[in-house]
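User: Hello, beginner here. Can you help me understand these amino acid letters and fold codes? It all follows right here:
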Amino acid sequence: MNLVLIGYRGVGKSTIGRLLAAELCMPYVGLDAEIVRRAGMSVAAMVKKHSWDYFRDRESEVVADFAARDGQVLDTGGGAILRAKNVEALKRNGLVFLLWASVADIVRRIGSGGERPSLTGTKSFVEEAAEVLAERESLYRAAADHTIDTSRISATDAARKIAAIFRGAKSPPSR
């Protein structure tokens, strides 16, 4: 079984994912990093050169590949849940954890968002974060088996909590 982290940019997926991988002795895979590695260019360059649809197609390929494997901590990109086939693939062999944070915490954690391509192209970073988070909330919550609010606990505590839930889900029921 895979442990899958979903959520918007800046909620702690990468940090918590690495902590979980160490705690659970499982490989950590940042799916956006894998997309970048395969494409040979940054997400921003990919979107500028091709389009968001092109990036989402590459994302779906990577999700399908890694979701079919077993025993990994998968850190998905914030928009992986936009395609139902990605969610289905991730849930088939994974326990999905939504990491949630307030817009204020997201903005504080990732600053102006300058290194990440704009999702709307028309709004300030704060406006964009609030709008996109609101648009995606129902998709995130529908995909998640569990939700952890990372605005309220440290990354270490979040990782411990997630690891405990994951271990319980992997253990057979006691008789």
